[in-house]
Amino acid sequence: MQQKLFIGGEFVDAADGGTFETIDPHDGTVLANVAEARAADVDRAVAAAASAFPAWSRMAAADRGRLLLRLADAIEDDVDALALLETRDTGHPVRDTRGLDVPRTAATFRYFGGMADKFQGSVVPVEQGFLDYVVPEPLGVVGQIVPWNFPVMFTSWKMGPALAAGNCVVMKPSEISPLSALRVAELAAEVGFPPGVINMVPGFGATAGARIVDHPAIAKISFTGSTAVGQSIARSAADSLKQVHLELGGKGANIVFDDADMAAAVNGTAFGIFHNQGQACIAASRLIVHEAVKDEFLERLITLTRSIRLGDPKDPATEMGPLTSSQHRDRVMSHLALTEEEGGTVLTGGHAPQDRALADGFYVEPTIVETVPDSRAAQEEVFGPFMVVHAFKTEDEALRIANDVAYGLGGGLWTRDLSRAHRVARDLRAGMVWVNSYKRVNPGSPFGGVGVSGYGREMGFEAMREYTSPKATWINIDAQLPAYYDRNPPRE
Ligand code: NAD
């Protein structure tokens, strides 16, 4: 298990020798002591990235792509070990890390490996006598700061497009779950990425993270995390005019109409909220259900919810693991207390599980509460296995409830009415909408939000644009320049 910083192609200790513990959320034991990057280490990483940049950005795009494809293969070959590492560090059940997260990581690196020599510039038909060509240029060194919930996938979402476009990266994984990102860096070194192109600096937000944000040689910050930290990063970046891309929180609306396929909607709703213990920015954390089907729908959903198998995330039969840290578990539980204070009703869950085998872990039962749309429980991101329910009578009312939050990341709806599906999808205020499904992602489909969910996009061509700057070059082929000043005519 790799536990050191990855700087300039080598695994190294922190300059001051500091380390921090990463905890196994299943039983609260120390999983590893990881080198803790601080400002001096970030500075070393940025210097390494800056010196690697000229050669990396000039390398043939197909060769950059080939390295990304090799990394995708190496991740696939390592799937069992990498999935287990991710599971131990995050608590995400191995059936998902093995079946979804690691394969998706490989697929995303592969997508951007293929993209490297296909993302091309253009020629603009300007006035006669000129050739104007536009080249997407890499930005230089980019700083990438990610949260703890899907750390292995985020390496590919962030590094895939940045590297394909010719940038060098300094990435800070979360202090809660840094191990899989270090393993991806190790695999990248093994497949031949030049030293300095990828640098991994695990550490804390206030030290390593803040230095990445402030560093004058970093051209862009791509940040995934909470809205509060995203806002503080945008404020800090204002002074240097550094570019910022923000993927922030969410409070996903999931609307179930009375003509929906109930079995599919129940299944999709449970997955939408409880997958990864609800620790997903696009989680379906608000169920907005038509009053005519509410009782039947909730009965089926609660039956399914109570049958979800909580347990050791390393067990392939486990469907729901622990929350990722004790602090986060406490935060989720405090939202539960708040909901009850606000007059909400707990329909199922709401406690730590009774199973004594789970007593040392950070487990919370899958929880559904009924509350009013303007309560804090219904407005604030909880980021746990916690779903609020509201009933509606009309399509307009459903949309009003859905759109009446500050967030605008993902949202979904279930209906058999084709026109309504398109109409509601159009009117939902969100960056991503799923019809008769929930939480679909693909490396080609833009991922991001509106409102306080941030700006900019991961994935697809949009991500390549995030990591490039279009340079227009004008060539005078045979244009006669106008004589601006009679006394100083252009030379023959
Ligand atoms: P967080 O904002 O606390 O931390 C995210 C990262 O930022 C961590 O690496 C942390 O160390 C770092 N950080 C903290 N303070 C910093 C500072 N002042 N300067 C620089 N870096 C700093 O978020 P979290 O608790 O790790 O993750 C949960 C949040 O992430 C939720 O709000 C969730 O919605 C959001 N999220 C968003 C997306 C998305 O794509 N929109 C995806 C996953 C998670």
What does this structure look like?
The structure is a single chain. This protein has 492 residues and is an alpha/beta fold. The chain has helices spanning 39-58, 61-77, 79-90, 94-115, 151-164, 179-191, 205-214, 227-240, 262-274, 294-306, 326-341, 376-379, 395-403, 418-427, 460-466, and strands spanning 5-7, 10-12, 19-23, 30-35, 122-124, 130-138, 141-145, 168-172, 198-200, 220-224, 243-247, 253-256, 286-290, 345-348, 367-370, 386-392, 407-408, 410-414, 432-435, 450-451, 454-455, 468-476. The radius of gyration is 24 Å and the shape is globular. Helix 2 (61-77) packs antiparallel against helix 4 (94-115) and helix 9 (262-274) packs across helix 10 (294-306). The chain has 2 domains: 5-248 and 453-475, Aldehyde Dehydrogenase, Chain A, domain 1; 253-435, Aldehyde Dehydrogenase, Chain A, domain 2 (3-Layer(aba) Sandwich).
